[in-house]
Amino acid sequence: MSPDRAVLRRALERGEQEGGSVEFKERLTEHLHLSEGRLESLAAQLRHRVLSGDGEATYVVGVTDDGGLAGISPEEFSESMDVLSLLAEEASAHIEEVKTWGVDGVANGDADADHGIVGVATIREGAVLEDDDHIVVGTAGHVDHGKSTLVGSLVTGEADDGEGSTRGFLDVQPHEVERGLSADLSYGVYGFDDDGPVRMDNPHRKSDRARVVEESDRLVSFVDTVGHEPWLRTTIRGLVGQKLDYGLLTVAADDGVTATTREHLGILLATDLPTIVAITKTDLVTDERVSEVEHEVERALREVDKTPLRVERHGVETAIEEISETVIPVMTTSAVTRDGLGDLDAMFEALPKTAGEVGDFRMYVDRTYNVQGVGPVASGTIKSGEVEAGDDLLIGPMQDGTFREVQVRSIEMHYHRVDEATAGRIVGIALKGVREADIDRGMALLPADADPNPVKTFEAEVMVLNHPTRIGEGYEPVVHLETVSEAAAFYPEGGQLLPGDAGRTTVEFKFRSYLVEEGQKFVFREGRSKGVGTVTDVTTD
Length: 541
Ligand code: GDP
Ligand code: MG
Fold this sequence. Notes:
The chain has an 8-stranded mixed sheet, with helices on both faces. Strands 13-15-21-18-17-22 form a 6-stranded antiparallel barrel. Strands 23-28-26-25-29-30 form a 6-stranded antiparallel beta barrel. It is built from 14 helices and 30 strands. It is of the alpha+beta class. A hairpin with a 2-residue loop joins strand 25 (478-481) and strand 26 (484-492). The longest helix is centred in the first third of the chain and has 17 residues, at 74-90. It has 4 domains: 3-125, no CATH class; 131-350, Rossmann fold (3-Layer(aba) Sandwich), CATH 3.40.50; 362-447, Elongation Factor Tu (Ef-tu), domain 3; 457-539, Translation factors (Elongation Factor Tu (Ef-tu), domain 3). It starts with a helix and ends with a strand. The structure holds guanosine-5'-diphosphate and magnesium ion (MG). Residues 141, 143-149, 160, 162-164, 167, 182, 250, 280-281, 283-284, 334-336 line the site of guanosine-5'-diphosphate (GDP).
């Protein structure tokens, strides 16, 4: 048993005790645990656990009351973490760290555990790190293509031995150490001050992390996106409280571009995340092979209408200036020789927070809850513009397609009440003029003078990332667009879409209309099939 697995064992052994700091939960749901009354009592319980543990509590999720391993799906776990982060917020605390274990082993690499997972969340008193000089990077890439190692080598400054020594520095998940796999959520932070990088000596030590945060003028956190969109949208909230700024996709020089690489790339780009591609493990192959993989990567990028930019050729400065939703810097790295890692440092030292879009205020509701004495709160990431307490807004579309006038009672941004908030921030907006029961995920908030035109049907350009056969008329995936997750029917132009091909289709939500706008990106999936799309026309309703 690795030392890390002992974390779970110890928590289970200590068990839930009256006046102790450990709490067992099978799962937490928005529906049950954020309901009126329940939220407050659970937050009080959490507060109590935190105080009992001298500022630190442990929540074991996916276990029964008596500590049996129940195991819940990654989606359920994600929702549980989301709820837990809100409870923590309510109790003036935050989730500091999450570790998960597959109950019955991991089925395929970085993806989800087939038999459910259990997790241990460490809750700490006080606010989470949050600041404009903190960029959050989501990593993705085929399993074993060097994500953890690259992050480990960046945050510690140490070279890897090619056998997993560096990723051992990180808070990798216990089962991964055993199995040599990785699906960690939050796994590294480093920073910069006037003299350059401020790195971890030993990321296992909390004090070391605190020192880096303290000494740095700018911080870079890495979060694993696990190639798993629900995590992308939700759990990250609890860990960093802000949206991802950049994607970092690894492609191992020996394996090259794989189906998983393409899938992850598609999803990163579908979420409009400016992304850097790092070709890793260049020490293992010849120069010819490196340029072969560079070409493979460039082809894969061009296929999805992106422009690759070779950092070695054009320089870091150019890459920093040019990186965008369409220009993708490609660099070659080795964690063993640390080739290319200096360039990555230079990028991370200078890359701006990806400013939210300017323009009118827009926020898609991610979740809602009632807070006693405050009323309904809609939370989500501000997509564009800014919002102030007292603003008049519209929310909708309601079931009947209309928008309702509401007023902003107050704005919560992590534990603090704020007077205003701008694009990119995750906020809870308390609303006057609407009942919580009337607000759903996927609705939009926008200025009172907007003239929104919700639609049930729209036209899109889509690309099937992986589907065994053609997609025909009436294919019914779930469409994830902004915070909308809704079944929709596809009616492809010409009757079908082929895997790997881009094509046009009409998309029709099955049950209701949403505010959809041209240019919005979305992901769709049905069973094992998955694809990405861009909204091209919303006037066909
Ligand atoms: P992940 O699954 O994408 O997080 O991949 P890991 O970071 O766990 O790396 C998988 C294996 O590749 C480990 O044994 C690493 O030591 C090894 N590795 C990672 N990067 C490099 C590299 O640049 N060069 C060499 N030779 N091995 C590497
Ligand atoms: Mg890993």
